Amino acid sequence: MAESENTETQKTDLVGEDKNVNGNMEKEMTQVEDKEEDSSQREKNISANADSPPETDKKEKKVVKTKVKGKPSKDDIQVEQTQPVAESTEANALPENVFPLFMTSKTQEIYNCKCDEDVTIENPFIMIPKADILEDMRMRAAVCDFHPFKQEILDYPGEDILIMYDYEFKYGQNFVVALTEEAKELLLKSTEEDKTEADSQAAEEEDDTVYLYVPPESKEWVSQGSEKEIDEGILKEGRRKLKVSVKRIRKEFGAAVTFEDRNVSDAKDGSVDCPSSEDRSFAVARIELDKGTQAIHEVTSEGVQTNWTYPRTATVQTYPREFTEQEKLELYDSASCKQFVFSAEYNFHLALQQNEITSVFYIDWHHLGDSDDTFGSKADNHMKEYQSFTDLQFSKDKVITCIQWHPVIKGVVATAVAEKLSFDERIDQSARVIMTPSIILIWSFTDPIHPQLILEAPDDIYSFAFNNTNPNYIAGGCYNGQIILWDITSHADRLKQQRGSNRNKKRTVLPGFEDPNALKTPIIHYCAVSSIDHSHRAPVTDIQWLPDHMQITKMGVPQENITNVSTQLISCATDNVVLFWDTKPSKVHQIQDDKTKMPMGIPATFKYLDLTWKPLLRVTLAKSEPGGDHAPIKFSIQEKQKERLTVTGAKSEMKDIDLNKTASTSQKPTSGKEKTLHGVKTFMYVGTEDGEVVYVDWMPQKDQDSGKIQTPKPAFYHCLHDGPIVSMERSPFFKEVLLSVGGWTFALWKEGVSSGPILCPAASNVRLSCGMWSPTRPGVFFISKVDGTIDVWDLLDKTHEPTLTQSVSPTSISAIYPYQVTQKQQLIAVGDYTGTLHILEIPWSLRHPTANEVNAVSNYIEREVKRRAFVEERWNFREREKREQEAEVKRKIGIVGAMAPLTEEEIEMKQRLEYDQYLAEESAFLRQLGIIQEDEVLV
């Protein structure tokens, strides 16, 4: 009875057009069905006579499909095949030591092998570690799906066990497990053979189809009247050609023609646009239109003849009248003159005081457009694209991680580029990352196509900085945690060359002696790298040089720097430490004569630091409460470089610095007689990976509990931002005001106010990527976002939303850096995730400060500080009010000594009251939802 139900009968529709053939097909199908009924009845009788029929007696009947092209014959319609079931089971039999396995959804989640997600029909195999299966069997015992094969798994020699996904339940379960190495190989090999056989069958079926090419038949062309329309649309010459005669004076034949270049921005309306306008006289019906225009002005000649009788000014045609000496003496001695002098004495003194206060040599004409009450037009209130830099070989499809303007040479900007890879992707593609060069590109406005210099590094650079006193020294932080130093002194002249100087030099070279590498960009190798054992354990995210007027000892004490040369720097990474580095050699290096030669092309400036450089001071950022450390990304100290390195005075002040003397001075160790700077604040602000702003002292102190010298706990920290902090910048006008940017928010902080930020607007709809202050306006700062836009905030305009939002790049912005070139020009460098550096020109209204803007912003900050103090006072008041209410509740319930510490009975009574109140509120809420009835009570 069961065998008749298991018999499979497949019926197919045959291809054919003849009605007789279709009739034969239906007759054949009827005969097959009759045969099946007879066989099923026969099998029922056999099953009734025998209790357990043998497997070999089972028969399977199949109707095989045959694809027929053209008119089919009777032999091709259907063929009945009868074969034992055992043969088909043999074809689908599992190899030895391979068993079906059913895995529940919970087990699939444990081993990360969810059906149709982790394992599919295309990728049915997955390797599960043997240790994970044994651990699961130990935890869940018999509940584990692998428990029936416990002994086989224990005896399994390998470390990973092969599991195959059975999508069609071919073997009875949803998975198949191989419990020996030989079974694993057989299972993999059988699956590949099945796939190859299926592909070959599909190829054979495709090869049976024959395609015949039927060439097109040529037909006679029938005219529909289109040639007339084409002929009318052709423009034909219908007028006589004009003859033009050009004449020139004979003496001007062969004269040299001189041209000169002029910048469009030098003069107002320097360029004239010719926009297209609608021609009202144009009509579609006209095929040809004749017009005449006169493109020159009319020339008129006029002349006048005048007789200049008196050569005087046009408005004064008389000689001046002067007093004689006698008349002057009489006038001085007269009473009226003395009375006038005495009466005008007071006003005369006021005029003298006014001249003393006001500059009488102020030229109004030169400052005609710089008045404080003048505002730019609406067309000037947005940033304009000034220039862009990209290199198809080194920076394309990479991310710009850091931007730095050259502190001395104008028009030179440096960018660090890195691969757009996550940590896991870097591990997977480590071979490709090692072969990809890690560089810093130095661009110049004189050549926007090719970089001037390329600084080579062992790994991607995420932060670098020019030295404060000698810009030829550059320090950078690598992705692997090392600190690198470059010396570009031998190539500094290349950055100062004017436009076209390389071409002029090439012309002066004698023929046959040209240098093929003269125009190639030089690649500069680093001259020193820190010891990897003493470096950071994570990518260096920020690096800064200390100002040249101070230096730090090993104990973190700030001292006076007699040499006035920046030799120390600070770096931070997400390995919970901030490191101080010193580039001066130790006394051991001064005594020993290092005769090791540097490779060709690498300067020996910092050879005593190469691979042996260790940090001077290590600042560990431990949290106040136990349970972890702070992971710094950005930091900021209060001390700044001297005014000689500001943008406005960099050129005049840096001329007095001798770079050779600076290099020799920076390699001398300290004398030990430096004075301690008591006015320097040793606290720093640190922005962490968790969005925390930490205020910590870098000077180590003695711990009272352990007695060790270590970094003190942070004075305070606030977890305000909802993402890693990407910027921590101090205002160039107020050194106690900071801007922090992280996640979707930014905040302004005032050093000395520990209760929180003085300004924190609403969160943005888009994640923020960077933030910088304006170098000329105290109340303006720039915020970049990942959608390619830049927000310009003006505190004097509004504080709840940005003053200007402008789209700069179609991709995410990674870094920005504003820079004042001159008093009349200010630029901002913007780097994105495609490796393109955009240079934008900031409009007049955003770079020119208003009248008394410094005082206005200072007053605003003071008001916010007072508001913050009021908020803190309200917090304390509410806390006191809460304690008084608790004391009043205790007094009402009869507890004596309301202000005394609570006993265990009082605490238990208080908790009981709070729990009863919670149950009452919960019951009322559930009754409103209709979950419980009015008479029910929660227990």
TrEMBL record:
Domain of life per record: Eukaryota
GO molecular function: dynein heavy chain binding; dynein light chain binding
One GO term of the biological process aspect: inner dynein arm assembly
Record key words, sorted: Cytoplasm, Repeat, WD repeat
Ranges of compositional bias, category Polar residues: 79-89
Compositionally biased tracts (Basic residues): 61-71
InterPro entries named in the record: Dynein_IC, WD40/YVTN_repeat-like_dom_sf, WD40_repeat_dom_sf, WD40_rpt
SMART domains with a match to the protein in the record: WD40 (SM00320)
Family matches, as SUPFAM superfamilies: WD40 repeat-like
Compositionally biased residues, Basic and acidic residues: 8-45
GO cellular component: inner dynein arm
Regions that span the bilayer: none
Disordered: annotated segments: 1-89
Compartment annotation: Cytoplasm
Protein name, as recorded: Dynein axonemal intermediate chain 3-like
